[in-house]
Write a structure and sequence with these properties.
Distance between the termini of chain B: 114 Å
Largest sheet of chain B: 3 strands, antiparallel
Helix content of chain B: 25-40%
Largest interface: A-B, 58 and 48 residues
Strand content of chain B: 5-15%
Structural class of chain B: alpha+beta
Distance between the termini of chain A: 27 Å
Helix content of chain A: 40-55%
Number of helices of chain A: 14
Oligomer: heterodimer
Shape of chain A: globular
Order of helices and strands of chain B: HEHHEEHEHEEHEHH
Radius of gyration of chain A: 21 Å
Number of strands of chain B: 7
Largest sheet of chain A: 3 strands, antiparallel
Structural class of chain A: mainly alpha
Shape of chain B: elongated
Radius of gyration of chain B: 31 Å
Number of helices of chain B: 8
Strand order of the largest sheet of chain B: 1-3-2
Chain lengths: 305, 272
C-alpha cells in the first residue's frame, strides 16, 4: 500500500500524463456518443438529412438500412417476420458488432452511457457505498425474460421500457416524460446500486455482449509487469470483474481482457499512470518484458472453496 | 435417510438458492412487462394508425418504433407517441384526424418507408387503406341533418360519392324540403379523416373511429331476400300465393267507415 492508493482516482495519471492524455479515451468516447446523436439530430434540427430514424431502425443517406438486432429478435419471437429492409439492416449491425466487439455499443454509442457515467462519477466523488449488487448474470436472466414475455404477449416487450431508444427517440422526435425515466436511472446508479443499470440490469447490453463475445477489439494488460497496484483501473471500470484475469494472471496467461462484459471503454488505459493497458486486437497476446530486473512473484493460487 | 452421514454440498445449496432467487426476480419483472404489454394494446379511439398498418395486436409485434414513416410523411400527419403524454404505445406512429388528417398520397410514402412491414408493403392503392371508418356520430348537431346544406364532409372526401354520398330524405320539420344526409359507405371509406378535420362544428359531428368501434357485422348465415331473388330471377319459393294487398280504396273493408283509416294524401286511383 502506497500513499498513491489514497490519492483520488486518476490523479496520478493526470500528474504523470497530463489531463488530456489521462482522459483521452473518455473524450473520444464522448465525441463518438455525440457524433452518433448528432447525425440523427442534423435532420430534424437543421434539415441536413444524413440519417433518418432512431437507434431502433434508421436509414443512412437513403440507402443504408440499420436495425437493432435485439428488437428484431423480439419482433420475430412476438410473431412477426420482418421485411427484408429490416432484416438486412439487422444483419449489418449484428455482423459489425460481432466483429468489433458487442459492448462497444454500450460505451461508444449508447446515449444512456453518459447518464450512468455521470452518476458513477458523482457516486465516486461522494464516496457512497456500492449498495444493491445483484449478480452480473441478472441481465442475462432479464434478457431471457424479455424474450419470453415478447413471445407470450406478442409485443416487442423491452421497447415498452427501453431507456436507450426512449431517450434517443425522445431527443429526435419529442421526449414526453422520458426525462423522468433518465432521472430514475441516474438515481439508481448514484444511490441504490453502483453500476446498477448498465452493469447488472440492462438486457440490451447483455445482448450485445453475447453477440460480440468474440469481437476483435480488445484491451490488453500487456504491460502488466509495470502494475503498481494503485487500483485506479478497478475504481473506474464499470465491469471491473473483467480486469483481474488479464492483469493478475499468472505468467504465461493471456494479458487480453477477453470477458464479453468488457465494454472496451478504455477508461483503464486513461487512468493508469504506468500505461499497463492498451487497445489491441484479440490475437495480440504479447506481454511486455518487465522493466523491473526482479520479476514480480507469481500470485498465490486461490484457496479452494 | 439417504442424506445421513453425507454432508450437503454448499455449492449445491447455493446454486439452488441463486436459481430460486433469479427465477423469482424474472417472474416479477416479466409480469410487470407483460402488464405493460397489455396496457400498450389499448389504442385510444381517436388515435389512427398510418395506412397499411397491421391490426393492432400484430402491429405491436412488428413496429420497431424507428419513426421512418413519420419522416417520410410529407404533411406532418404522423407523429410518434410520447411517453406519458399520448395514450398510444410509446414511440409508435399515429395521427389524430381532427388535427392533421391523412392526405392519402398516391405513392403511400409512409408504408414504403417502413422497414419491418408493420405498415403492409402489399398496400399499393391508397383507396384500399383501412385506417378507420367515418361515422356521423352526432345527428342532432350535424347541419345537414338539420336541413341545411353544409355538405362540407361530403365535398372534402377524397373518395367523394363512393365513401360519402348525400342521401335525400323528407324534411319533416319544414314539410316541404329535403334533407341531404351524409351517408358513409364503409367499403369505400379509407378512414383518412378529411371529413372529421373539415366538419365546421366546434366538435366534429362526423368522426373517424377504428373499425372495431365503427362497425357491426352481419351473421354468416344471413341472406338478403331481395338480393337472392334478383340473383335467381324469380321467387325463391315456388307456388307461393300472392295475396291482395290491403290498400285503402273502394272495395276494401278498412275505409270510409266512421273512425276508419283516412289518409291525408291521395293514393293513385283513390277517390275517383
Amino acid at each position: 500500500m502506497s500513499t498513491r492508493t489514497h490519492m483520488p482516482v486518476g490523479m496520478e495519471a493526470i500528474q504523470e500524463k497530463g489531463w488530456v492524455r489521462a482522459h483521452k479515451y473518455l473524450l473520444l468516447r464522448r465525441a463518438s456518443q455525440l457524433l452518433f446523436l448528432a447525425v440523427f439530430l442534423l435532420g430534424p434540427w437543421f434539415g441536413i438529412w444524413i440519417v433518418q430514424g432512431t437507434l431502433a431502425g434508421s436509414l443512412t443517406l437513403g440507402v443504408l438500412p440499420l436495425t437493432d438486432p435485439f428488437i428484431l429478435l423480439q419482433s420475430a419471437i412476438a410473431g412477426h417476420w420482418p421485411e427484408w429492409t429490416a432484416l438486412i439492416g439487422g444483419v449489418i449491425v449484428l455482423v459489425a458488432y460481432a466483429l468489433i466487439g458487442g459492448r462497444v455499443y454500450s460505451s461508444w454509442v449508447c446515449p444512456i452511457n453518459p447518464v450512468t457515467d455521470a452518476a458513477n462519477w458523482l457516486h465516486r466523488r461522494l464516496d457512497l457505498p456500492k449498495g444493491w449488487q445483484p449478480k452480473r448474470s441478472t441481465r442475462l436472466w432479464l434478457l431471457a425474460t424479455v424474450l419470453i414475455v415478447s413471445g407470450m404477449t406478442g409485443v416487442i416487450a423491452w421497447e415498452l421500457v427501453n431507456p436507450i431508444t426512449m431517450l434517443h427517440r425522445g431527443l429526435i422526435f419529442g421526449a414526453g416524460f422520458v426525462w423522468a425515466m433518465i432521472i430514475a436511472i441516474f438515481v439508481l446508479d448514484l444511490f441504490v446500486s453502483r453500476h446498477g443499470w448498465c452493469g447488472h440490469i440492462c438486457p440490451v447490453g447483455a445482448f450485445y455482449g453475447l453477440i460480440g463475445a468474440k469481437g476483435l477489439l480488445r484491451v490488453s494488460a500487456s504491460n502488466r509487469a509495470a502494475c503498481d497496484d494503485c487500483m485506479d483501473c478497478y475504481a473506474v471500470c464499470p465491469e471491473n470483474q473483467v480486469i483481474s484475469p488479464a492483469l493478475k494472471g499468472k505468467s504465461g496467461s493471456t494479458p487480453l481482457i477477453l470477458s464479453p462484459d468488457c465494454t472496451t471503454c478504455g477508461r483503464c488505459i486513461d487512468v493508469c499512470a504506468v500505461d499497463v493497458f492498451k487497445f489491441t486486437h484479440r490475437f495480440d497476446d504479447k506481454v511486455a518484458a518487465p522493466t523491473d530486473p526482479v520479476p514480480a512473484p507469481d500470485p498465490r493460487a486461490a484457496r479452494p472453496i | 435417510m439417504p442424506f445421513e452421514g453425507k454432508p450437503l454440498s454448499p455449492q449445491r445449496r447455493r446454486f439452488l438458492q441463486d436459481a430460486a432467487r433469479a427465477s423469482g426476480g424474472c417472474v416479477v419483472a416479466g409480469s410487470l412487462l407483460a402488464w405493460l404489454a397489455r396496457d400498450a394494446r389499448a389504442l385510444p379511439a381517436e388515435a389512427l394508425r398510418p395506412p397499411g398498418a397491421l391490426p393492432e395486436e400484430a402491429f405491436l409485434s412488428a413496429c420497431i418504433r424507428c419513426g421512418l414513416c413519420v419522416r417520410d410523411c410529407p404533411y406532418d400527419t404522423l407523429k410518434l407517441a410520447e411517453l406519458g403524454v399520448d395514450a398510444v404505445a410509446t414511440g409508435t406512429p399515429y395521427f389524430t384526424a381532427r388535427d392533421v388528417p391523412c392526405e392519402m398520397c398516391d405513392d403511400i410514402p409512409c408504408a414504403a418507408a417502413c422497414p419491418t412491414g408493420a405498415l403492409d408493403p402489399a398496400l399499393d392503392n391508397i383507396d384500399d387503406a383501412k385506417m378507420g371508418v367515418a361515422v356521423l356520430v352526432d345527428q342532432e348537431n350535424c347541419l345537414n341533418f338539420l336541413g341545411l346544406r353544409c355538405d362540407v364532409c361530403y365535398r372534402v372526401c377524397p373518395v367523394i360519392d363512393e365513401a360519402i354520398t348525400l342521401e335525400t330524405a323528407h324534411n319533416e320539420r319544414s314539410g316541404h324540403h329535403a334533407l341531404f344526409i351524409p351517408t358513409v359507405h364503409a367499403d369505400h371509406c379509407t378512414g383518412c379523416g378529411m371529413c372529421e378535420k373539415s366538419c365546421v362544428l366546434p366538435e366534429a359531428a362526423i368522426k373517424v373511429l377504428p373499425a372495431r368501434l365503427a362497425r357491426g357485422s352481419s351473421a354468416d348465415h344471413y341472406r338478403k331476400g331481395w338480393e337472392e331473388k334478383e340473383a335467381k330471377g324469380g321467387p325463391l319459393v315456388e307456388g307461393i300465393i300472392d295475396l291482395p294487398d290491403r290498400l285503402p280504396g273502394p272495395g276494401t273493408d278498412n275505409l270510409a267507415a266512421p273512425g276508419g283509416f283516412a289518409p291525408t294524401y291521395d293514393l293513385p286511383g283513390v277517390g275517383q
